[in-house]
Write a structure and sequence with these properties.
Radius of gyration: 24 Å
Largest sheet: 5 strands, parallel
Oligomer: single chain
Number of domains: 4
CATH topology of the largest domain: Rossmann fold
CATH architecture of the largest domain: 3-Layer(aba) Sandwich
Bound molecules: adenosine-5'-triphosphate
Shape: globular
Number of strands: 8
Order of helices and strands: HHEEHEHHHEHEHHEHEHEHHHHHHHHHH
Distance between the termini: 24 Å
Strand content: 5-15%
CATH superfamily of the largest domain: P-loop containing nucleotide triphosphate hydrolases
Length: 529
């Protein structure tokens, strides 16, 4: 594995600009290689990097691995290093009321003078800005916070594969003249961190996301006036990030002068940390409060970060009062967010909150067909159905599977058909089929609702048992290949109509009850490991 990783790293080092290689590939550590399953596990130092690397480099690493091992290899990313620590709120625990003055305590050890965060361990650490600070230059600080807001911080956005990044979150501070250079040299996409590839045009719509898409379009057409904030939530890989980039791209297309900024919440935390280190909150505010559109992704990362929440609160108030648009994504709906101040939660709730659900079969098929077409390798419909039937959880997983099938067919010189899909996805399919059994579901749901597993088969019908049992039946139908009678049998010999009733009831209820839907997401993710 080490030999492979060395070769892989060398290959990528040759292929990528040095900043990208240092920022994204160098920090990766191979963890284990499961020879029989053909699965290589690789650790990334934080979630932001993990997601980025997964979205942008996974395919390439897998193809290098396929060449090296002479067979398809699946690369799985996982988290490695501890999370960042943000500065304390200025004076009190309850955060939002107290703005300026960094506090004492841990913060007291922060530098008295602004300095370049060269030793930064914050999660948003990224590469230097588009090669302008390539590491050979000494990091200099011209003003307390001159970098990120003229040449914005690395927000984790994806610019058509051209990863730009700023100093906030970067391993180094901007060079002395970065401000003027960046103003001239960087275009709108570098400033906004928008990914030009994520648009409304290539966002496939279905029941699962039509409301969210309609709201997003409405907001893109009438920013600041229709729904403010727009709060989109849903499980991993369901298209939240795609949709908010689409809004940003649409707004920029309509008005190239619009001040748009996409930022991942972890990066915002990192910006707060830097503003604190450099005593540069004025500049921080000037930048964030002057945007026309702020797109902030995965707000759940603000959990427990009081100072960040406070700064965000002020940015929020400033922008909304100026009728500037804010769009937020999260893995859950506002009231369910843990460790977030109530005042923020009530503000998140004050605009429009929309869920994005896992895609239904037809939508999964449509997504696969569209993605394959974009790749220039049309996929026969029966293959799209085959993949979509077996992989149900999210779009990212579908994309990964499609990449595998296309690479496998190319590598083995075979025409794409269901047999190729079966071979290419063998490991993936056997893992997911093997893991999720009805027994597994019964146990997981019973644990989740704190009832006995035996209640899954019993005839008892109090509500606190009946509902989890119906949920378990629903999940059994969704996540296994069992028929309704088979499921009924495994639930204490119940009739298939009882199972059908449960499946219909839960699938309808989850579209209306956000809390239930969230619990189902958690259960689905748990079961899928
Ligand atoms: N409806 C869709 N149509 C086309 N592509 C989609 C759709 N939904 C998601 N995708 C693609 O799936 C991938 C994952 O989507 P995205 O990153 O937007 O998910 P997310 O909900 O933000 O996930 P996370 O919570 O993990 O950040 C992206 O490549 C995105 O383009």
């Amino acid at each position: 594995m080490e030999d492979f990783w060395q070769t892989c790293a060398q290959t990528l080092e040759r292929e990528l600009p040095p900043q990208q290689f240092s920022a994204w590939i160098r920090p990766l550590v191979p963890v284990a290689f499961d020879e029989s399953a053909g699965v290589l596990r690789v650790a990334a130092p934080n979630r932001f990097k993990m997601d980025w690397v997964r979205s942008n480099y996974c395919g390439r690493i897998e193809s290098i691995a396929a060449e090296w091992f002479q067979r398809p290899i699946q690369v799985k990313f996982e988290l490695d290093a501890p999370r960042a620590v943000e500065p304390p709120p200025p004076r009190s625990q309850n955060g939002l009321q107290h703005l300026q003055q960094p506090s004492q305590g841990r913060g007291a050890s922060a530098p008295a003078q602004p300095r370049a965060p060269q030793q930064s361990t914050y999660p948003g650490d990224g590469p230097s800005y588009n090669g302008q600070n390539n590491g050979s230059l000494p990091a200099q600080q011209t003003g307390p916070y001159s970098g990120p807001y003229t040449g914005p911080s690395n927000g984790g956005a994806q610019h058509g594969g051209q990863q730009g990044s700023g100093d906030a979150g970067g391993a180094r501070a901007p060079v002395h003249n970065a401000k003027s250079d960046l103003n001239e040299a960087t275009g709108i996409y570098e400033r906004s961190r928008l990914n030009v590839d994520l648009t409304f045009d290539n966002f496939v719509t279905g029941k699962a996301n039509q409301l969210a898409r309609a709201a997003a379009l409405q907001v893109a057409e009438n920013p600041g006036t229709s729904y403010n904030p727009l709060f989109l939530y849903g499980g991993v890989g369901l298209g939240k990030t795609h949709l908010i980039h689409a809004i940003g791209n649409s707004m920029v297309a309509d008005n190239s002068g619009a001040r748009v900024r996409y930022i991942h919440a972890e990066q915002f935390v990192s910006d707060v940390v830097k503003a604190y280190q450099r005593k540069a909150f004025d500049e921080f505010k000037r930048y964030y409060h002057s945007l026309d559109l702020l797109l902030i992704d995965d707000i759940q990362f603000f959990s427990g970060k009081n100072r960040t929440q406070e700064e965000f609160f002020y940015a929020f108030e400033a922008l909304v009062s100026l009728r500037k648009q804010i769009i937020i994504t999260s893995d859950t709906y506002p009231k369910e967010l843990a460790g977030i101040d109530d005042r923020l939660i009530s503000r998140f709730d004050s605009g429009l909150t929309c869920a994005i659900e896992p895609p239904e079969l037809e939508m999964r098929v449509a997504i696969l067909l569209k993605k394959a077409e974009t790749e220039g390798m049309p996929l026969p419909e029966e293959c799209a159905f085959f993949i979509a039937k077996h992989l149900r959880s999210n779009v990212r997983e579908l994309e990964g599977a499609l990449r595998k099938v296309l690479a496998y067919a190319k590598f083995h010189g075979r025409a794409i058909g269901v047999e190729v899909c079966k071979d290419a996805l063998k490991d993936l399919l056997s893992v997911s089929n093997g893991q999720i059994t009805v027994e597994n579901i019964q146990k997981t749901v019973a644990d989740f609702y704190k009832i006995k597993v035996a209640d899954m088969y019993s005839k008892r019908r109090p509500a606190n048992i009946a509902l989890p049992r119906q949920i378990a039946m629903y999940l059994a139908k969704e996540l296994t290949q069992k028929s309704l009678p088979e499921i009924g049998e495994l639930f204490g010999g119940r009739d298939h109509t009882t199972v059908l009733h449960a499946v219909r009831k839960i699938s309808e209820a989850r579209t209306k009850q956000a809390e239930l839907n969230h619990s189902l997401h958690v259960l689905e993710q748990t079961l899928k490991g």
